[in-house]
Write a structure and sequence with these properties.
The chain is mainly alpha-helical. It has 5 helices and 2 strands. It has a two-stranded antiparallel ribbon with strand order 1-2. Helix 2 runs antiparallel to helix 3 and helix 3 packs across helix 4.
Length: 105
């Protein structure tokens, strides 16, 4: 059932929209790539990332599968530590925008 406005919820892509992310290369080498753009290209089409983002994989399983699939040369725990540190600060002005949303959303 929709609210009076017909909107039930507002969904945000947190990384890069609400929160600034560190350079993706800080996550480590992917298939030997250490530069940002090739890593972004792999990340954007990665089924393992999609599974994690949709809740189908735990953080630990996500890290293990990423390390194995992309020959990252580190332990899954190391990748997970870097992944958890990837989000940086909230973009300026976001808190004010969110505060202005209808509280029913």
């Amino acid at each position: 059932m929709s609210g009076a406005s017909g909107i039930d919820a507002v969904l945000f892509d947190v990384g890069g929209v609400i929160l600034r992310l560190a350079d993706i290369a800080t996550l480590g080498s992917f298939n030997g790539h250490a530069e940002s753009q090739p890593i972004k290209d792999l990340w954007s089409r990665c089924d393992i990332v999609r599974a994690h983002e949709t809740g189908a994989l735990s953080a630990e399983a996500f890290a293990q599968r990423m390390v194995e699939a992309y020959a990252m040369g580190c332990a899954a725990e190391d990748f997970l530590t870097r992944f958890c540190a990837w989000p940086q600060e909230v973009f300026p002005g976001v808190e004010e925008i969110l505060a202005d949303l209808d509280p029913r959303l």
